[in-house]
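Bumping with the actual sequence this time:
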Amino acid sequence: MPPLGRSRHPASPTRDHASRPGSLIDPQTLFRIKSLQLRARAAVEGFIKGIHRSPYHGFSVEFSEYRQYTPGDDPRYLDWRLFARSDRYYVKRFEDETNLRCHLVVDASRSMSYRSGAYSKSEYARTAAATIAYFLTLQRDAVGLVAFEDRITDYLPPRHRPGHLRRLMGMLDREPQGRATDLAGPLDQIAATVNKRGLVILISDLLAPADALRTPLARLHSRGHEVIVLRVLDPAEVGFTFDTPAMFQDVETGRELYIDPAAARAGYLERFAAHAAEIERICTDLGFVFQPITTDSPLELVLFDVLKARMRRAGGLARRAGPGRGAAR
């Protein structure tokens, strides 16, 4: 049964058609690929074919310290002069080893299990996260993962090293248990533990009171993180496209109610629009990128938003660095 009170913006999200990638894969076709990593790869390759790729400018990094070599470290960072003196392998560590440090924050709560079609919001969100991770890894960016329900259930720090993407994909591929949603607690934990500034991409249906989101999102802002909020919901939730009276079930509480959609639709859409507008207002006030997206939207559009944010960040870094301080080469 469809979830009680689970809906989204009255219209599907749009992008500037002039700036969309030219080749978009229908999600129904994409989700026929069983392997999550192959699905992500197909979405990324489709995206890349549809855009004119511009070269990214690199940024200098500041040497921080040495640490002993461990299997899996990039051998390019081995310091052979120090090896000659100590007969031990050491690698150089840097303050910022990549152009970008990204945390993917993925909602795995029970409300994300809803589906009106062949795949759920959770499957779409996890595929979106996998697609972003695959793309950023190709760009030599460090990507990490935080999965949460009413608490953080999985955490993988951002890395860019052999085997890291495979481990991240394995974590995303696990079917979530689906407990109640508590966005405030996990976001507070993330703000407290993620010290180095970077990009935080929150992928969630945001089915929580808007007031409960303001404070934890503000904490991320106070830490200096850039934040992209991708609100993922099912098309049936957006327009409340149910026709016949039926028993509706809240997938988080299990509560059931008999509802006549014709009588409930107007009030439902009004309350939903007010909630959506408040969430967008919070994100706008904090300077976050906010993008609503339905599960019938091509994954390339998600990548398009992330790429825009990434390039904007690169431009900001270059301006702050200035001549002689690691500006873009």
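The tokens above came from a reply further down the thread. Residues 26 and 167 are 27 Å apart (CA to CA).
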